[in-house]
Amino acid sequence: MKQNYRNSQADAWFTGFANAPETIPFFFTYDGREYTGFSALTRIGERVLPGEGKETRVFTFTLEETLTLELVLTHYFTHGATEWTVWFENTSNRNSGLLQDLRTELSFTGSRPVLKGILGDHENLYSPYSIDLADNLVDFSSDSGRATHINFPYFNLEHGDGGTMLAIGWAGTWHARFESRGEVTTYTASSVNGMKTYLKPGEKIRTALFVAAPYTVRNEHYATNFWRSWYIEHNLPKADATGAEMQPFSTACLCSDTGLPNSDGSISERHTTWRPSLEKMIAEDVKVDFRWFDAGWYIRPDGTGTQPFVPGYDWWESVGTWELDPEKWPEDTFRESTDFARANGRKTLVWFEPERVTDPENLAKHYGYNPDWAIRMENEPAISNNIGDPACRKWTTERICKMLRENRVEMYREDNNCDAQKLWKHLDALEGEGRKGITECKFIDAHYKMWDDLISCTLSYGGCGFVDSCASGGGRNDLESMRRGVPLLRSDNDRTTTALRLSMTTAFNKWIPFCGANSKEKKSQLAPTGESDPYIWRASYLPVLNVDAQFVQDDRKENFDTLRFGLREWKKVSPYLLKDFYPLTPWHKEQDDTDFTAYCFLDPETEEGILFAFRQDRCVRDSLTLRLPFANGEYTLTDEDSGECITTGGDVTLTFAAPHTARLFRLQKA
């Protein structure tokens, strides 16, 4: 039976704030004075915005005839989650005072406080943590400008008989602090680290989105599925202009199928290479939902093509024009490829990197770029494109939309291969004293607006209502971004070992349900070939299935029987991949393949699901005993390979003939 997550105490908490918004626990310092809540401000307006299962209140305040503040407060009655964002606008004709220390502070009462969560991508690879907060102090921060590398702004604070899920929705820098004294735990959250700025007349900035979602049962499985349920119901973008719910989908990139040099991205693809691959895909009945067209397709800023092949230069050192290279794609040949895909039931996604430019002078000479928009520092190879400048954002968005619209590209894929914070600080310094953090404030807000405009673009001709959120892998998975995008790849590292893939699934999928990985085991991220078998396929079944295959290159010896097996089995299990999620074995490190990994997806309404169990490559034991934590009666497990049926009331022992074996069971209430 579907869980009822309504929470009357959480509803009352919201009602108290809605009736007295001055008391909401938001703090800031203005012109040397600290403000606690909004009680010292003048309230001048209130609006109520109803929604399905939620309500939004917008309160407007003034401060010293200079600033106008807007508090956007939303409550989700279906789950008892509350969120808020605060906007500051200088509505006067003079510079404001200094604004700093913008933060949310919440106190939670309850014994045995424990903080649980995962770290970020890159070197931490989403490893989980559990910290006893008793008389302890814990700090997390993100300082690079890519919000979910290193640390992760989502937290599960257990306290008393339940707990609270917390999130900071901000794609730039952020900080979170947890301090426990006795039975009171204080949580402090902020965005734009070190901000201390005045606002010029007409300037408007915002805080992060702060989320607090209390739950009533102190159980990690309960908390995980409470969060996943709220995330899917209220945060996941819509699929298209009809408002349809997003469903799992598959992708495939054709870059390793051209027979031409290809160091990364889709550098080798051109008008002569796509048709044989797509026709073979159709002939072998291994069709995917999206053709993935990655980096390296654009002309250089000096107007020359990208021949001859120069590894790296073809994609890293030539971004910014967002115009198809006419040597690779003359006239309407790329549109021909997307039309062919569409006619055969396939869509297209295309890679861009709008926050970075190269060769600004030639971009100005040939494409109307303003070199003043380029943020650059001596000895810093990356040049940021200052989309925080409205004119720059307009130029960038229009060029991207032109390419998307002319070629009927259904999905926009974004990358960000630059830690922009030091460049933001550099631009702050050029503005003079009293402007710390202003560039980041403008940049991140503009980025959200740019995604909104790009989604409107693709929706206008029948494309997707979401984007791919890539930022050197998993660098932009904050909640505010996730309301517009999905991570097609949880991490760039998730193109390597199956052990890593399983490690990430048991950690990352607790927090962000809609995500994807590669479908092969590889020696390195960019290796052109890799291994594939039922074990690897089953470890790759996520809501986004990124099919790694070579369709026409004879020297690659693609096994189409194995490819058909993986695609068909994934389609059968995909309806369960956004249901309740239960990791059944302890998390293991990314290269640890000496034990078992098992997890289950269960539809709480039908009480049907799927169970995956893996005996990893160096696991010496041949049996695994599991407890089904959701069991409330007898369940039947049916082995997808042998048809063997096992009936259990909660505990089940599985045997495995050999290491590197994956067992897949259909699960049903007996």
Describe this structure in words.
With 670 residues, the chain is an alpha+beta fold. The chain has three domains: 8-234, Beta-galactosidase, Chain A, domain 5; 249-575, Aldolase class I (TIM Barrel, Alpha-Beta Barrel), CATH 3.20.20; 580-669, Golgi alpha-mannosidase II (Immunoglobulin-like, Sandwich). It is 21% helix and 31% strand. The protein has twelve helices and 37 strands. Strands 3, 4, 5, 6, 8, 9, 11, 12, 16 and 17 form a ten-stranded antiparallel β-sheet that branches. Helix 6 packs parallel to helix 8. It is globular.
Query: What proportion strand?
Result: 25-35%
Q: Under CATH, the topology of the largest domain is which? A: TIM Barrel
Shape descriptor: globular
Mean pLDDT: 96
Amino- and carboxy-terminal Cα gap: 14 Å
Characterize this entry briefly.
Helix content is about 20%, strand content about 30%.
Observed structural traits:
670 residues; alpha+beta; Beta-galactosidase, Chain A, domain 5; TIM Barrel; Immunoglobulin-like; 3 domains; 10-stranded antiparallel β-sheet; 8-stranded antiparallel β-sheet; 37 strands; 21% helix
